[in-house]
Amino acid sequence: MTRPSGAAPSDGPGARTVVLVRHGETPLTEVGAFSGGGVAGPSLTTRGRTQAARAADATFRIGKDLWPDLARPAAVVASPAARTLETAVAVGRRTGQPVRTDARFDECDFGEWEGLAADRVAEGWPAELEAWATSGTHRAPGGESLAEVADRAWAGLADVVVGATVVVTHLVAIRSMVGRALDAPPSSWRLLRVPPCSLTVLRLRPGGTGGPGIVAVEVAAVGHPTDR
């Protein structure tokens, strides 16, 4: 029998679902600047608020006409950044769930690159940027590596995901969790495309070696065609 979202036949009691939602667009998203964790960061733009409303509508449809074989989301968790909280509030309002925060889902700490446009970072730190992006294990100056982001975010999933949970988070954080779920090398995580307010679904089941008590068994994504 074909399952609507490609769910694995081994799904059974104890299966859990996490819906990773990237925040909406901010002024720094528009210019491709590094906007990291550990700071409140910018708020959503008008376009970003529209994206958040669309993501909230899509999340509300999970378990109905969108991924009908999945459980309806029963909890909403967000990183403490302004942009994720604003997006999460839209999701929570639409799904009827309160929003709680967890700093383990913060964006990568970009250290000295915080707030800088990508071309400025490429000009000032060419070797460091290349190593950070292509190795996945090299730290940004004064900041984190992709692998370090994965360690804390994956541990967060083990604690917060019960049943079906929405986690509103960031580009690098989502790349790291999906990469870890697929057991892909950190050097390849940068290839994952995660548009603003896209939804990425991970199906989890107890046990395994993919993380503390959980292993990903399904990945799917819904993006917005106009957000390229």
UniProtKB/TrEMBL annotation:
InterPro entries documented for this protein: His_Pase_superF_clade-1, His_PPase_superfam, PGM_Phosphatase
CDD domains tied to this protein: HP_PGM_like
Pfam families, per the entry: His_Phos_1
SUPFAM superfamilies from the UniProt entry: Phosphoglycerate mutase-like (SSF53254)
PANTHER family: BROAD-SPECIFICITY PHOSPHATASE YOR283W-RELATED, GLUCOSYL-3-PHOSPHOGLYCERATE PHOSPHATASE
Protein name, as recorded: Histidine phosphatase family protein
Native source organism of the sequence: Isoptericola luteus
